[in-house]
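User: quick one, fold this
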Amino acid sequence: MVKGTPHPIRVVTSVTSRTLLGSLVGLLLWAQLPVVALGWTAGVVQSGSMRPALMPGDVVLYQPPPRNRTPAVGQIVLAQDPTRPGQLLTHRVYQVLPNNDLITKGDANSTPDSTPIRPTALQGVARLRVPWIGLAVQLWRAEQPVPEAILLLALAILLALATLPVHSRNRHN
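Assistant:
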């Protein structure tokens, strides 16, 4: 190896860790930009009821619901859950009733939801999915300390590797 050239493993490690960190930062910014700039709502998918379209840990960005317009059948909506007060529900519009109430259904569920959603309970219409970026939030809410600790340790290792200098200093003159 030529004197002063970086070791190939060090270069690969540095480039890989910086690429992963850059991707994570990019995804975080992508998930927050519409919230800050457009007033959209962001939410982390907690269950598998919308698989395969939405996976647990995905962040979904919701545009405020259009005024005087009912979401169309097939659109994914965020609404106050009529069966669990104080909880939110992300499901696909399955049917629009004559009074504009919505029947929703999770893609992975075999039957539609039993309780219609009133138009006033709508919080937003899904516009953007950012995969995996909400896994840490999901683990935190589930109070699972071991996977959460592993995730934090992996992030710390990535940060440490990304800050290592690529060139080693030559101490021999």
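User: anything notable?
Assistant: The chain is about 35% helix and 20% strand.
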